[in-house]
Amino acid sequence: MKWINTLLAASRDFKRDPCPGPKLAQNLRDAGFQDVQEIRYKLPIGPWPKDKFLIEEGLEAFTLRLFTQVLGWQQEEVQVLLANVRKDLRDPRIHAQFDL
C-alpha cells in the first residue's frame, strides 16, 4: 500500500493525473469528438491471472522517475521499496490490478 499511495501522491505533486482513464472519453467529447466509445480493461499485476499475457510490467520505470525526481528519494531507497513491492506482487493471495 505504501508504494501505490506514494506513487499516486507523487503524480499529483507533479501535476499529473495518476488515473486519467475514467476521464478520457469525456475529455474527447469535450474536445468535439463524436461517437466516442469507451472500453475498459482490467490489467492484473503479478502471477495470479490465468492469462499469462497479463503480467507485471513497467513497475520500475514509472516509479523511479516520480520517487527520485519529484519526491527526492535516493535510487537505492526506491530499489528497496520496489523489491518489497515485487515480493508482494508475486504473492498469489494478493490480487492487484489496474483498471485501464
Structure commentary:
This protein is mostly helical and 100 residues long. The chain has helices at residues 2-13, 21-30, 59-70, 75-89, and strands at residues 42-45, 96-99. It has four helices and two strands; from the N terminus they run ααβααβ. It has a two-stranded antiparallel ribbon with strand order 1-2. The chain is flat and about 45 Å long. It starts with a helix and ends with a strand.
Oligomer: single chain
Strand order of the largest sheet: 1-2
Structural class: mainly alpha
Helix and strand sequence: HHEHHE
Give me the number of helical elements.
Answer: 4
Average pLDDT confidence is 80
Rg calculated over all Cα atoms: 16 Å
- Cα(first) to Cα(last) distance is 19 Å
Number of separate strands: 2
Instruction: Based on Cα principal axes, name the global outline.
Output: flat
Biggest pleated sheet: 2 strands, antiparallel
The helicity comes to 40-55%
Question: Low-confidence runs (pLDDT<50, min 5 residues)?
Answer: 52-56
Strand content: 5-15%
Architecture blueprint of SSEs:
Blueprint: H1 2-13, H2 21-30, E1 42-45, H3 59-70, H4 75-89, E2 96-99
Antiparallel strand pairs: 1-2
Helix pairs in contact: 1-3, 3-4
Keywords:
100 residues, mainly alpha, two-stranded antiparallel ribbon, 4 helices
In short:
The chain is mainly alpha-helical and 100 residues long. It has helices at residues 2-13, 21-30, 59-70, 75-89, and strands at 42-45, 96-99.
